Amino acid sequence: MNDPALIVLEPSVVGTLTDRLFDALQRAIVEGEMPQGSKISEPELARRHGVSRGSLREAIARLEACKLVERRPNLGARVVELSVEQLIEIFQLREALEGMAARLAAEAMTDAEIDALA
Length: 118
Fold this sequence. Notes:
Helix 1 crosses helix 3. The chain is mostly helical. It has helices at 17-30, 42-49, 53-65, 84-108, 111-117; strands at 39-40, 69-72, 76-79. It starts with 16 loop residues before the first helix and ends with a helix. A hairpin with a 3-residue loop joins strand 2 (69-72) and strand 3. It is 57% helix and 8% strand.
């Protein structure tokens, strides 16, 4: 279902409440459960997740640092809206970084790790 009200914070997951809340909100944004440009209602999200607004604000600040949320004075926080050009730029950057990471990992592999791949 695409209902953000159904996002459940798993108490068994390792990490602080803020970590789990950040992960749940990040997943909801990335998977489109919280649409681009949608307003983030702190009271509603705090009630929905059964958390304090302090924990929620910390999670939103982390989302803002990851450029998934933007805050504007007198308007509050919203999920970012990305243009097609911005999405293409992100995927090109990711493609380059993943290629470099794979090359560095391959260069650092031991002979036993290489044999295990075969």
